Inverse folding.
């Protein structure tokens, strides 16, 4: 029983280390591969521990609780906070995507766009900061001129603004999105060449603003 308890202690620490290595994105909106990773990680850890009876199970539960409280206490220490909890990471600053941070966190542009749209900001240029918090959630702060008044406050009915449509993501053309806005591949290539871009693979993200069909481009850094 002592050996199994020691196994549990070691596995708790090991799983914690692996979870920290996997990064904050694992704690946010789970994708299929995130869920599979969690399931197999849990299965591997549980399979290595042989709980021998009710008394041993109680000891294991108490031990897990002790580890949890110990980590919670240690996370309050300034020197250990960034190791145990992590630190916020800026993904968008003044309407510009911080590509190096996305790459370091293994966070795709598709996930980022989906998240900021859920906050009601379809255009990244409207965002002052988008920050990935240590708990895996994203905080979005819009530019000052976009809030806090609403059309309802002023008793006005604004014109409908077309949704920005992604046409290039991580060097790949979005053909379906082009057809949605009645644009062709030839039109996109012509627009890129007009702006000085000859190779699609040099572009990290590009979208079309629906109000005037202007193409906004973010090249790879």
């Amino acid at each position: 029983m002592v050996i199994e308890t020691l196994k549990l202690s070691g596995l708790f620490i090991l799983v914690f280390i692996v979870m920290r290595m996997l990064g904050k994105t694992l704690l946010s909106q789970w994708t299929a591969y995130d869920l599979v990773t969690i399931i197999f990680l849990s299965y591997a850890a549980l399979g290595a521990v042989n709980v021998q009876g009710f008394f041993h199970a109680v000891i294991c539960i108490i031990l897990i609780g002790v580890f949890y409280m110990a980590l919670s206490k240690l996370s309050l220490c300034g020197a250990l906070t960034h190791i145990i909890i992590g630190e916020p990471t800026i993904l968008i600053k003044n309407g510009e995507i911080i590509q190096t941070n996305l790459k370091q966190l293994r966070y795709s542009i598709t996930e980022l766009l989906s998240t900021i749209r859920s906050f009601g900001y379809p255009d990244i240029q409207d965002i002052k900061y988008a920050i990935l918090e240590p708990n895996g959630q994203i905080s979005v702060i819009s530019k000052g001129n976009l809030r806090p008044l609403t059309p309802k406050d002023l008793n006005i009915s604004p014109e409908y603004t077309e949704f920005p449509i992604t046409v290039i993501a991580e060097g790949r053309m979005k053909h379906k999105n082009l057809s949605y806005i009645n644009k062709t591949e030839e039109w996109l290539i012509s627009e890129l060449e007009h702006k000085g871009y000859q190779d699609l693979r040099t572009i990290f993200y590009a979208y079309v603003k629906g109000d005037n069909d202007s193409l906004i481009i973010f090249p790879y850094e």
